Fold this sequence. Notes:
The structure holds two protein chains of two kinds. Chain A contains no helices and eleven strands. Chain A is mostly beta strands. In chain B, 0% of the residues lie in helices and 57% in strands.
Amino acid sequence: GQQVMQIPQYQHVQEGEDFTTYCNSSTTLSNIQWYKQRPGGHPVFLIQLVKSGEVKKQKRLTFQFGEAKKNSSLHITATQTTDVGTYFCAGHTGKLIFGQGTTLQVKP
Amino acid sequence: DVKVTQSSRYLVKRTGEKVFLECVQDMDHENMFWYRQDPGLGLRLIYFSYDVKMKEKGDIPEGYSVSREKKERFSLILESASTNQTSMYLCASSLPMDTEAFFGQGTRLTVV
Lengths: 108, 112
């Protein structure tokens, strides 16, 4: 079945460093969504990308959707301790399939 | 405010018991989902429903069934609980046409 792979699984950074997580799908996606889960919380929607090559920004977060609509990335510039959590990508092909997530730890 | 409510935050059940996990949403959403979350494996889709009485298998449906008799309620049933079903279970709902999903707070199920 459809698979959504996400790397890395964990990332430890010093506060102020940048962070990137990558997402790859085995099939073409109609769209890709990104979620953030704080420790002890539930996933919360961040953004949705629909168009091939689309780039969206939310303050220090930059989201990209690949030209072939099979991969995506989330880049955080100058991480802060509030960025701590697990970031998931999720692809739609009739059902919503999540990647394994990248857990970000930020050392102050 | 959007709300997805799961009936229990923590649950402990014995092996072989029939277990019901309930999820209710107040947003009149057509789509509802059940996921389980395990460390290193992310969220894995168990079942989803796109309408009342309609259901489709996700990636790991074995050992589970679901019921959707009313639009706002989606139940996950463990027919005979086993220790490998110890996990965090997350319910979500969304409008149709690939829109954002809203999650409940999760049920941490332990099967002993």
